[in-house]
Request: fold
Amino acid sequence: MNIGPLLRAEWTKFRTVRGWVAGMVVAALATVGFGLLVSSGIVCGGAPSPGHPRGTPCTAPLGPDGEAVTDRFFFVHRPLAASGSITVRVTAISGAFAGLQPWSKAGIIIKASTRPGSAYAAMMVTGRHGVRMQDDFTQDMPGLPGAVSAASPRWLRLSRAGDTVTGYDSADGRRWIRVAAVRLAGLPATVPAGLFAASPARVSGPAASAAGPPVALGTFDHVGLRGAWPARAWTGSDIGFPSGRASAGLGGYSRSGGRLAVSGSGDIAPAVPPEATVMPIAHTLVGDFSGVIAVAVVAAMFVAAEYTHGLISVTLAATPRRGRVLAAKAIVIAAVTFVAGLAGVAAAVPLGERVLRDHGNFIAPLPVVTEVRVMAGTAAVLAVVAVFALAVGSALRSTTAAVTAVLAGVVLPYFVSVALPILPVAASDWMLRVTPAAAFAVQGTSPQYPQVSGTYLPFFGYYPVGPWTGFAVLCGWTAVALGLAAFLLRRRDA
Reply:
């Protein structure tokens, strides 16, 4: 028998049972409603004020590529014209308050402007990662390894030629190694350039309760300028700190003969919590878990009800090739769930974003293709979960067993790992890699940057697997369940 008539027959069965149709409508509405309820409880910002009755809104500057970034540091700068170079020797980097952090940094930087988020290229020494060249927040290239000290200093150089900035390092100031050359598109004719220091506030344990945020202190000498440097004095500026913020006062510099000491807190990096408060789009989609339960119930009943009412024997008598019956049911329930899920998600995202913004939250900007992937991917997850529930319901001939399997495999791992994180990070990562809950990686929007230590948790949009890898894990579980259901359907009596 051709599968076309089977599909029409299964579709007719589905649409004529009002409870199943209503269940899909409930799934879509629950995705929207529960998501809005959760979003309305997330408030960001400080104490309420006359201008901001809900508190000061959270925000983050945007980098050259439109990504949310952290751009806070202490900058000792002078103007640099179209071409020139700055060379320094770094003899020490240390930390105050919370100690020296792995990504504490001190070095030299050429920046398009002092506006947070503007393009830059920097050569730096770090707390534990040697010399690095970084540019435009997301790019990182390694230089000389090892810790810096008076006995083992590091020489750094940045050279500008128009829009191109080249970074070099040296162990002795004579033999120079080129680390990288980068192009900063649209770099102005005259830009601020000089020395900087920063230390990210990403510490835990006893250090987190220290007297203040981490501060990096870099010690420099042999400062050499070549090329078009207009005659100006060095200027020290706190970049990116709100006026009046206590952390801004931790930066500064001093000169003693040919030696400069520069201190600063903050970071120059992609926005990663807790250094920055950025809401991922996934916060608008927490209602899809209520949708998961609803579609699981409908999908399981789509097959189990036939066993309950004795109609499965009629279906199988009309279609001896039993595997095709199961396939037709899977296709119908997947298609219906995808449409209902996409409708719910398409409403939940913009409405949820509006609620989050009204409560002062900053939502990370995303490319259109990423937003489409998140929404379509979430609908696809709901569709595959429905097929998974259908397969378990067919194998066990029980709606209750099917819904329990979905709760145990999809909902529970997510909640104990993300929504109510009660497991160690390693255990949570493992669960989000191998259980069907891995599929929610399709909602991940934030890459993990090796050069940034942060709170890389799904709550902030990070997943231990890629979007489609996680989705493939769910598909694998579903394929196994379908295979088992098909095998049992062929072997057992109706």
Remarks:
- Residues 322-358 form the longest helix (37 residues).
- Confidence is low (pLDDT under 50) at residues 204-210.
- The chain has two domains: 3-43+277-491, 69-270.
- Residues 1 and 319 are 7 Å apart (CA to CA).
